[in-house]
Amino acid sequence: MSSSSDPGHTGDCLFCRLVAGDVPAEVVEATDRSVAFRDVNPQAPTHVLVVPRAHHANAVELATGDPEALADVVRLADSVAEAEGLAGDYRLVFNTGAGAGQTVFHTHLHVLGGRPFTWPPG
Fold this sequence. Notes:
The chain is of the alpha+beta class. The protein has helices at about 15-20, 60-65, 65-85, and strands at about 25-30, 35-40, 45-50, 90-95, 110-115. It has a five-stranded antiparallel beta sheet, with helices on one face. Helix 2 packs across helix 3 (about 65-85). It is globular. Residues about 1-5 have low confidence and may be disordered.
């Protein structure tokens, strides 16, 4: 039985199925370790999710289990932001846990841009 941090986990994980090509997505860029795709419920003019291909439930599990994969996710996020014309003016967000707004428990980094943001976030 696969645990949530098992890199081979697919089960009913939406993002594992997306990475496998079983769920359609508007992929904007990819590497050998990560995939970036448009969020289906965008919160900004640019809202792209970047996920590692391997399953880890959250950013801490990814950082602990595969730090290079975490670095790849962040590098891909920057590449996406540049390609989207955000010129270094964007927000990166990891939500960790249901109380913080995480709804899919496969690490994903939100790349948000194209509008002004306030602090603190809502």
